[in-house]
Amino acid sequence: MPDYYVAFWNLENLFDINNSPRRSDKLQRTLGKELKKWTTPVLNRKIQQLASIIRQMNHGQGPDILGVCEVENEHVLHLLLNALNIPDRNYDVEHHDMSDNRGIDVAFIYDRTSFTAEAQFSHYIIKRSATRDLFQVNFRSAGNNLIILIGNHWPSRSAGQYSSEPYRIIAGETLSYFHQRIREIQGNNNVAVLAMGDFNDEPFNRSLVDYALSERIRAKVTRATSPKFLNLMWPLLGNGIGTHYFDNSPNMLDQFLASKGLLTGNSNFKVLPDTVEVVRFPEMVGNGDYPAPIRFGRGESSNKDGYSDHFPIAVQIKEA
How far apart are CA 210 and CA 237, in angstroms? Predict the structure, then answer.
């Protein structure tokens, strides 16, 4: 019965180089000064920094599947794959160009030895200004079992937490709708669905509880007939650690949501909730009063010894 190490990481503005031929003129104008001095050497340094952390995951074996967000295109993802160079890994990418205003996408890196990507779907979120889609990939394991992953990067709080909350509520309702559709299409209320991502809200916020239908209590998911998730991050709240820090306060914005089939094991996959962690290797953590992640930043303000403004998260899943 193999165990799989699944992780997610907001890579913080993993853009292609300034004036890249792979970027539209419109997007180049939108990004403008944001990419000033984002040169090939700077991008390569950013890639090496990210790769150095991913290589350490799973006791140096790297993740079996890694969900990522804030990546501009497939080119930078393949640069990251080439930098990983982990023995016995055969990584590939599932990616879809989304309509986000800043051109950043959600994607998955996965080991083709363990999984085959059967289908991908990019679920559009209705919003006046374009945002990231929900990115669904149906994976088939080497043991011929289906697990469906949904990558999320919900609208940010940059306009203020409460004034921007309706946009995350829309995203939460969209996730719940497609969770229900997956169950209907598969004809199975026990299908293995793992939603992951940077939700830009905490597990107790309305967008996740009332609209994405994520619960704190396992029995409320396993006994429900509606498409509920168990939010696996609840046990980590209150310990002073977050995945992102704002005003010196920890926020658990990056989360895993597990379906009924992943809790009962009736899907032939079973998530191991006590394995959930915020990945914080010592070199990633700032030495100030608060254990915040060391940012790489961008443009003229980049820190070549940084990584991302988010910590990764990880969980283990067992296959029957």
Answer: 19
